[in-house]
Design brief:
Elements: H1 3-7, E1 11-20, E2 23-30, E3 35-43, H2 50-67, E4 77-82, E5 86-92, H3 99-104, H4 111-130, E6 143-145, E7 151-153, H5 159-162, H6 181-184, H7 191-207, H8 216-225, H9 242-251, H10 263-274, H11 285-288, H12 320-344, E8 347-348, E9 354-355, H13 398-406, E10 411-418, E11 421-429, H14 430-441, E12 450-457, H15 462-468, E13 480-483, E14 489-490, E15 497-500, E16 506-513, E17 518-529, E18 534-537, E19 550-559, E20 571-572, H16 573-590, E21 593-603
Parallel strand pairs: 11-12, 14-21
Antiparallel strand pairs: 1-2, 2-3, 3-5, 4-5, 6-7, 8-9, 10-11, 13-15, 15-18, 16-17, 16-19, 17-20, 19-21
Helix pairs in contact: 4-7, 4-10, 7-9, 9-10, 15-16
Length: 606
């Protein structure tokens, strides 16, 4: 049977995007909704026993479960179908390539980018785990990147079929390098197997290498019995730190109960350590002794060239510039000791004490008074050349510093360079703002060359900022929002503000996000507004500050196309994040989009 004939009524296949073991991914066009999609086709084996029938039934259930997942960091599943020979899943088309493609080029992301990617991965996993869906095959090839750099998890529900015992030998184990020990042993797995795989991905992002390499048998033995070299010991310069090594070690603990209990706990620990905040989480006893333990290696199976063992618990090696003088001093001491032994000791016979030279014990000849030599004038010492001036220190790379600040997780900042200095402005979580200030202080820029104007928060806005990042309007860019009622807004005061539209006709949507995690929609769509127009909102009575107080957020979205098809009611922040991610994507396909994020503090009255 032909899949193309079965889906031709609605989907037009336009090309092949990739192939795998028993799978093909096509690009297609959905004629009904008029959008491009991806179609993954999986070959079904003949049903010859109950085990195969059960695997296909699980695959159907997995596909249905994946279709119920709606999250910005998960590739959306739109439709499912099958015939006697093949099953197919219609899913969101992600055009930026996979994380595997990025790693295969040798690209080493910066630490802020690593934290951002891992936060998005763990947000998606946390959402699916909360709904009882375990992926079971997290690996870079299943992590897609949009053109704007957002990570999306692909192939939910498909791994069960591709990795089941009905597939041919060599694929039934899936990807051993990313599989948790209990998964390799064939035991029942839960969300902690996904967290193990996420730890392997983190290791690879930090070091550029897989923690376990070799043939399938060798990898399985290492996963079950050994610990890898800490990622901070790999790479020049290394991306990770010993503190992050501990995060990786806990994620990859052999026993599931020693790992993070949830994706949210994993993400919080990583963000805290990356921001320079001491990780307060408990360290399991089996992991606390050292970040990674190394039991004896399993017997070599002939497929692995074993590198020399590297000591794990030692101070980092000194730089070559500091090490060479120490080696030189050691050589001098050694030479003196050898010389002294030659001067003080004689030859040693095999069976007794050292034999002394006979001449050494003969009576000395009578002393003769020494002749007095004629005085010799010592030559004048040569002139001492002036000490060379120290080599100037290299100037700090402001461009690299700026790039790392822009990529800092949980932030939307504009970084500008002027006169050898940097100016940083925008919004960021308290931890990220502190990390930016600390990085700037350690960057070696001239005194007074940095200017920081960050508005910070402690609420759960990180996911929202990641969604807005590709569309963010920063600095003087429009849309812009100015409060006319003051900031902070005191209890009983009414909210008033003005919005300046971008230099193109735009529909406006303004959402109010409270620190408590609730979202209200105070301006919704309507007719396009003229370019560069300032519009006022609020009469001082409609939106009044009440308890609970805190740091709230206003999100202004300007779009050429309508943002939402229907008016939205008050909703939880999590639901808004999901809806906004899809709405922004659709609006971008139809025209221009820009997002402005502004913080508003509400306080009790006097």
């Amino acid at each position: 049977m032909n899949v193309q004939a079965d889906i031709a009524g609605r989907y037009e296949l336009r090309g092949t995007l990739g192939t795998g073991a028993g799978t093909v991914v096509h690009e297609a066009f959905d004629r009904l909704i008029e959008r491009r999609v991806a179609v993954k086709v999986v070959n079904l084996p003949p049903i010859e026993d109950a085990e195969t029938a059960d695997a296909i039934a699980r695959f159907r259930r997995g596909a249905r479960a994946a279709g119920g997942l709606n999250h910005p960091n998960i590739v959306a599943v739109f439709d499912y179908g099958e015939n006697a020979e093949q099953a197919w899943i219609i899913m969101e088309l992600v055009e930026g390539g996979s994380l595997k493609s990025m790693l295969d080029t040798g690209e080493r992301p910066t630490l802020p980018r690593v934290v951002q990617l891992m936060t998005q991965l763990l947000d998606g996993l946390g959402y699916s785990h909360a709904r009882g869906v375990v992926h079971r095959d997290i690996k870079p090839a299943n992590l897609m990147l949009t053109p704007s750099g957002m990570l999306k998890i692909a192939d939910f529900g498909i791994a069960r079929l591709e990795n089941s015992s009905m597939t041919h030998i060599g694929t039934m184990m899936g990807t051993p390098a990313y599989m948790a020990p209990e998964q390799l042993r064939g035991e029942t797995v839960d969300q902690r197997a996904d967290l193990w795989a996420a730890g392997v991905v983190l290791y690879q992002l930090l070091s550029g290498e897989k923690p376990f390499s070799g043939g399938i048998t060798s990898v399985m033995q290492k996963v079950l019995n050994t610990d890898p070299v800490p990622p901070s010991r790999i790479g020049v310069p290394p991306t990770g730190t010993p503190s992050i090594d501990a995060i990786v070690a806990r994620a990859m603990a052999k026993a599931p109960e020693d790992r993070f209990a949830s994706a949210a706990e994993f993400a919080a620990a990583l963000q805290q350590v990356a921001a320079g905040v001491s990780w307060p989480g408990p360290m399991p006893a089996s992991v606390a002794a050292s970040p990674f333990r190394r039991p004896p290696e399993p017997p070599d199976d002939g497929t692995v060239v074993r590198p020399p063992l590297r000591p794990l618990l030692q101070e980092p090696p000194r730089s070559r510039r500091l090490l060479l003088p120490l080696l030189g001093g050691g050589a001098v001491v050694l030479a003196l000791l050898v010389t002294g032994s030659l001067m003080l000791g004689g030859t040693r016979s095999p069976g007794g004490p050292p034999q002394q030279d006979v001449a050494a014990v003969s009576p000395p000849p009578p002393a003769q008074p020494p002749a007095q030599p004629a005085p010799v004038l010592a030559p004048a010492p040569p002139p001492v050349p002036p000490a060379p001036s120290p080599a100037p220190l290299p100037a700090p790379d402001a461009a690299s510093i700026a790039a790392s600040l822009r990529a800092m997780p949980c932030s939307l900042v504009q970084v500008t360079q002027a006169g050898g200095g940097l100016s940083v402005a925008g919004v960021a979580s308290s931890a990220s703002a502190e990390a930016m200030r600390r990085n700037l202080a350690a960057a070696g820029l001239p005194p007074g060359a940095t200017r920081v104007a960050l508005d910070s928060f402690s609420a759960s806005y990180c996911q929202l900022l990641d969604i807005a990042r590709p569309f963010a309007a920063l600095g003087e860019d429009a849309p812009n929002l100015a409060f006319t009622s003051g900031n902070p807004l005191r209890e009983g005061q009414g909210l008033r503000f003005s919005v300046t539209t971008p230099p193109w006709p735009a529909r406006l949507h303004v959402a109010y996000v409270s620190e408590a995690g609730e979202v209200g929609h105070i301006v919704q769509g309507g007719t396009p507004q003229p370019p560069g127009t300032s519009l006022g909102f609020g009469d001082g009575n409609r939106w009044v500050a009440t308890a609970p107080f805190g740091t709230d957020m206003l999100v202004v979205i300007a779009s050429e196309a309508p943002l939402f098809q229907q008016r939205r009611r008050p909703e939880p922040l999590e639901d808004f994040d999901i809806a906004l991610a899809g709405a922004l994507r659709d609006a971008q396909e139809a025209g221009r989009v820009a997002v402005r994020v502004v913080l508003l503090r509400t306080v009790p009255g006097r």
